[in-house]
Amino acid sequence: MLGQADVRATLDAVKADDAQVVRDQIRLCQVPAPPFHEAARAQAMKSAFEQAGLSNVRLDRVGNVIGGRPGVAGKPHLVVAAHLDTVFPEGTDLRVTRSGARLKGPGIGDNCRGLAVLLALARALGRGRVQLRGSITFVADVGEEGLGDLRGMRELFAVTLKGQVDQFVSIDGAGLFLTTGGVGSHRYRVTFSGPGGHSYAAFGTPNPIQAMGRVITKISQMQVPGQPKTTFSVGRVGGGTSVNAIPSECWMEVDLRSTGAAELAALTAKFDEAIEAGVREENARWTSAERVTVKKALVGERPAARTPDDSMIVQTARRASRALGLSVAENESSTDANIPMQLKIPAVTIGAGGTGAGQHTAGETFDTTDAWRGTQYALLLAIALAR
């Protein structure tokens, strides 16, 4: 393909367009898209899709922005997506600063770079140099981060484009990588409750925070396999009334992950045992008839899945990186591709080029040096899959 004049010209064009890609990256990053409130950035992407000449540009019922580039035959149907949302709450200062090739701002790499590359592909293919047999749908989706729980992808594959997608590529974050394994996760909010009381006068009453502390200790001691990689983390805790009050309620949020479905199920069972044992020990510690109780709520669930190494989409992604002389590391991660992977739809996630640091922090940075290589990689892969 690289020897074909139309493909070569299109790849050269996106390299020449790199300054515009970076401008888009900065502009989009300064439009807020906190969890569950991506509407402002969605409108910015909708306008950009329209300006790029995509057809049937629209928002679906959960807020995904969708636009099409029809092919000659319509098949295969490829979806290329990048997520809109960030991990940062409303009110975060989103100003982007630039020093030479280095950009700094919350979300500048994850995933404003992905959105900018998505737009670059839409513009490049709209110039008409490359004729495609298959159609491409471009999607800027909601709900990829945190407790968004991939709600944009769930809607896309269950409703908006149900039964219509042959292949899927997600563009997510800085760097050059190829994700073929979807890390599954179970996320829980666990609430501990008790009668509470004065820290001195009611001493001897079981304490919900102390029960939670016992549970956290047991979680920290859980043994997990190294392969497939399996992890756990207590990410947030809260509760209590005052330093001199036995709390009546407290809570924790816990993230359990694995690339293996069986291993994730086994880890969840250990987690349940830790909760039961910690609460039981706290209640047994005191002679009071009062008891600490616990409720566990599943607040996020992502499927563990994988696209086989010998699948056409993985082989094509590898060939595209070799053709461009790129060193592309392969990994496993939790991305939008988890959903199509679970549905056995050929799917991968790729990096958008450049170099990033400080992901999910207010000090996130992105180095634009040779970032156009990531745009070319995404473009060549999309052309190959749609041809």
Brief description of this entry?
By secondary structure, this protein is α+β, with helices and mostly antiparallel strands. The protein contains 10 helices and 19 strands.
How does this structure look, described?
The protein is 34% helix and 27% strand. With 387 residues, it is an alpha+beta fold. It has two domains: 262 residues, Aminopeptidase; 119 residues, 2-Layer Sandwich (Alpha-Beta Plaits), CATH 3.30.70. The strands form four sheets. Strands 1, 2, 3, 6, 7, 8, 15, 16 and 17 form a nine-stranded mixed sheet that branches. It has a four-stranded antiparallel sheet with strand order 4-5-19-18, with no helix packed on it. A hairpin with a 2-residue loop joins strand 4 and strand 5. Helix 2 crosses helix 4. The chain is elongated. The model has no long low-confidence stretch (mean pLDDT 97).
List keywords for this structure.
four-stranded antiparallel beta sheet, Alpha-Beta Plaits, 387 residues, 34% helix, 2 domains, Aminopeptidase, nine-stranded mixed beta sheet, alpha+beta
| Average pLDDT reading | 97
Radius of gyration: 24 Å
Low-confidence stretches: none
Helix content: 25-40%
What is the structural class? alpha+beta
Distance between the termini: 10 Å
Shape: elongated
Topology:
Blueprint: H1 5-16, H2 18-29, H3 39-51, E1 55-59, E2 65-69, E3 74-83, E4 97-99, E5 102-104, H4 112-126, E6 134-141, H5 151-160, E7 167-171, E8 177-182, E9 184-193, E10 197-198, H6 208-220, E11 230-239, E12 245-246, E13 249-258, H7 261-285, E14 293-302, E15 305-306, H8 312-323, E16 329-333, H9 338-342, E17 347-350, E18 355-357, E19 365-367, H10 372-386
Parallel strand pairs: 3-6, 3-7, 7-17, 8-16
Antiparallel strand pairs: 1-2, 2-6, 4-5, 5-19, 8-15, 8-17, 9-13, 9-14, 10-12, 11-13, 18-19
Helix pairs in contact: 1-4, 1-10, 2-4, 4-10, 6-7, 8-10
